Amino acid sequence: MFNKLEDVLMPIADKLGKNKILVAIRDGFLISMPLIIVGSLFLLIANFPIPGWSEFWARFFGEGWESYLSTVSRATFNIISLLTVIGIGYSYAREIEADRIQGSIVAIVSFIILMPTDIAYEGVEGPATLSAISFSFTGTNGIFLAMVVGLLSVQIFHWVYKKGWTIKMPEGVPPAVTDSFAALIPSGIVMLLFFLVRIGFGLTPYESAHNFIYTVLQAPLMGVGNSLGAQIVYVVSSSIFWFFGINGPAVTNSVFSPIFRTLSIENLAAFEAGLPLPHIYTGQFVDLFQTFGGGGSTLSLVILMVAVGKSQRIKKLGKLSIVPGIFGINEPIIFGLPIVLNPVMIIPFIGVPLMNTILSAIAFETGFLPYTNGVALPWTTPLGFSGYLSTGSLRAAIFQVILVILGCVVYYPFIKVLDKNYLKDEQAKPSEDELEDISFDDLSMEDL
Amino acid sequence: MNVLMIFDQIQAGMGGKEKADIAPGGKKGEIGSVPMIKPHLAEVDGKVSACLYCGDKYFKDNQEELERKMIGMVKKLNPDVVICGPAYNYEGYAYMSAVLAHKINENTDIPGLAAMSKENQDVIAKYKDIVNIVKMPKKGGTGLNKSLSNISILAEKMFKKENIEQLKKDICY
């Protein structure tokens, strides 16, 4: 059965993993990740979920101290589309072996060419327009357009470049100069094309490319991603890929992460504005309530290994893995237990994250837990803290602990099977204990 | 066919990257990631009889001494074939695998082979002509099962001293 499954899955993983466009999107998002996390931390300090927090600090820094911190968070997630277009432009250029820095800057310029820059406002003397870039186009509403533009602009740029339609400099001219002249005509053609596209959209009822993409692509796609069904597909396929040794989330994220990311940042924006949080299935839902402790939510497994493991092998590996496990790192378990290609462990490895997903979905849907605020905590944030900080509710922290305990219940029978087998191996030669261990101290000079 | 596997700390189930300095050790029997390759070895009538391991940093820091000790231990255990790997794209482990497979071939009659992903360019460039290095995916890449099967098939042929020229072209660097 596993062989058949592998025959089906391998080509999918291969295609997704090697597809230059998907890889560029996935990696392009990663470029903005550190900035979003730091921006989130500023936002978290400004809105720390403790009653009286704001008033306490106001005594020292004066009323409205939070707005100082918000300038930093705003500078990251209100320009997420700009970061996205640069990141994707850069990583796509890398994938197709185009000039990376030229690729990323031509992408951002194309993106801004498409952007409405006459912002209407109501002045003292009546309606007027302002020539400006609006956060409403550089924030989450522009993410999907940023993806499309990042890819298209670099593709066209590279195509023209490869055609050889470039200005060539004589030898001896410094490379920086040669490169910038070589990029001149390709950049010009990309900019001209996007200028025409802008005019084209101006003639339609959508008025701008931003509006068009948001209406026909982003909103419907996010609707699909924002569902329990999508989460189940995501979490089950991630686990199955891991069983075959394939980094599951790296494959599935190439499809899902733009959606989850956008949903998170929309929650974050609402959180900052003090509005009701719109979405359940955010990136935080995935990281903190679905698969904490690494793929397969193996934190429960590690706890069991330490607590009930009888064989030396299980106990020792458990002890070594528990500290990294608390911070979400489970490489020693994945390869050392192992999980990969281990038919016994695949069942709970799929089952536990699936259970977490469904139970968390119920907890959020019924209003038992407040929605996640979108604050991008580092994925290494330990359990309990992460639940609390991402929702501002102690209940969520306790809920995470309950999930870990339930995870232990599911993992228990399976780890017992492995433990028993290993114990049998270890006890098979009771009188030859020293034989079992190979010690390098026993080597005599003759051996060397 | 009795197989000896040589692991780094991660594959041996001795911890993560932070344990790269653990001293060498071993077990008679199966440890760590053996269950992955076990069914493939079974198909060529092979069985892991013992496993040795060493932290990859420890190996690098004490290389000369470790080479001698590992060879001594291989001789003492006297398996039919030694598999150094699978090392994925773990740089230190890939290096250790190539070096040890090479030294085992040089100093014993027991055939040794290595397996690693193409990310380890430098190691591969240096050792591919003197060691059989089986191609395999990087950590989390596709094709692990196939490469484990390739490792087992090559191990069997090297043990039986069959002609491996064609096979090498297909599955090695």
TrEMBL record, chain A:
Pfam families: PTS_EIIC. GO terms for molecular function: protein-N(PI)-phosphohistidine-sugar phosphotransferase activity. Residues 5-414 form the PTS EIIC type-3 domain. Residues 433-448 have a biased composition (Acidic residues). Keywords: Cell membrane, Membrane, Sugar transport, Transmembrane, Transmembrane helix, Transport. GO terms for biological process: carbohydrate derivative transport; phosphoenolpyruvate-dependent sugar phosphotransferase system. Its main location: membrane. The chain crosses the membrane at residues 28-50, 75-93, 141-161, 181-201, 288-308, 371-390, 396-414. GO terms for cellular component: plasma membrane. The keyword Transmembrane helix applies. Residues 428-448 are annotated as: Disordered. InterPro entries: PTS_EIIC (IPR003352), PTS_EIIC_3 (IPR004501), PTS_IIC_cello (IPR004796), PTS_Sugar-EIIC/EIIB (IPR051088). It is a multi-pass membrane protein. It is found in: Cell membrane. Signal peptide: none annotated. The phosphoenolpyruvate-dependent sugar phosphotransferase system (PTS), a major carbohydrate active -transport system, catalyzes the phosphorylation of incoming sugar substrates concomitant with their translocation across the cell membrane. PANTHER family: LICHENAN PERMEASE IIC COMPONENT (PTHR33989:SF11), PTHR33989. This is Permease IIC component. The lineage of its organism: Bacteria, Bacillati, Bacillota, Clostridia, Eubacteriales.
TrEMBL record, chain B:
The keyword Oxidoreductase applies. Keywords: Oxidoreductase, Selenocysteine. InterPro entries: GrdB-like, Various_sel_PB. Pfam families: GRDB (PF07355). It comes from the Bacteria. GO terms for molecular function: oxidoreductase activity, acting on X-H and Y-H to form an X-Y bond, with a disulfide as acceptor. This is Glycine/betaine/sarcosine/D-proline family reductase selenoprotein B.
